[in-house]
Amino acid sequence: MSPTYSPTVRLRRLARELRKMREKSGLSPEEAAARLGWSRSKVSRIETGRTRASSTDVASACDLYGAGSSVRAGLVQLAKEVRQRGWWTAYADVFTGSYIGLEDEAALICQWEVQLVPGLLQTEDYARTVITAGRLASCDVEDVHRRVMARMARRTLLNRPDAPELHAVLDEGVIRRPIGGSELMRDQLTALLIAARRPNVTIRVLPYRVGAHAGLEGAFTVLSFAEEVDPDVAYVEGTAGDVYVESSDQVDRYKMAFVRIRDAALSPEASMKLIAEAKEQLSYD
């Protein structure tokens, strides 16, 4: 599962640094484009991360913006790293957004789930069941299998030497809903109990009795990175499309909401007890 860095994260960083340098130089996008011999849209695409700038383009921009030699060398190297292929590109037909690339380099993943077990903690059978149920068109067995394999590949993130910390808070309904039947759900709950033993995984359950809480608007994930230059990102998955929140003020709102949800949830120990009880009850259904 290499490389050890994410081209997606590097792309965000490169785009942000080039934009900051242009603004510091006092050049408008139009002026920079004219001086570089680029189109206005090329400047925009590079500064928003929609286009991977070549090392030559980055060097030219650095020269125009008056970057020092060390900054120039660092950004040119960053441009080379951006063009590397992450492991997930083998599943480009499955992972169509940039989330997996961001998740792959996150140092901390804070996840609030209201319906399903988080993808990083799903068993193969559980994943197959929810993926099949979510297909709106006729079920293509090969397509479902490929999506399941992609999810299992993604799950190995938690086993890496540089694995991120995962803090997951699950609504009690997640552990009570018998996805795939009692036996399959028992296996999934067992997997949660095992995963929670990992030093980098913390699982909490928000019990029904809490009532109104800060997570009523739906599930979300906040990704934080080891490098301070890479700002946190909030992610909301939806049927009509995924939303990436990068504004620091808005990300802070999600982070505060997660803290409130986490504080309202059971402790990790009490959560494991509740999951074990839910598993035991399934044995009698």
UniProtKB/TrEMBL annotation:
<dbReference type="InterPro" id="IPR010982">
    <property type="entry name" value="Lambda_DNA-bd_dom_sf"/>
</dbReference>
<dbReference type="GO" id="GO:0003677">
    <property type="term" value="F:DNA binding"/>
</dbReference>
<feature type="domain" description="HTH cro/C1-type">
    <location>
        <begin position="18"/>
        <end position="73"/>
    </location>
</feature>
<dbReference type="InterPro" id="IPR043917">
    <property type="entry name" value="DUF5753"/>
</dbReference>
<dbReference type="Pfam" id="PF19054">
    <property type="entry name" value="DUF5753"/>
</dbReference>
<dbReference type="Pfam" id="PF13560">
    <property type="entry name" value="HTH_31"/>
</dbReference>
<dbReference type="InterPro" id="IPR001387">
    <property type="entry name" value="Cro/C1-type_HTH"/>
</dbReference>
<protein>
    <submittedName>
        <fullName>Transcriptional regulator with XRE-family HTH domain</fullName>
    </submittedName>
</protein>
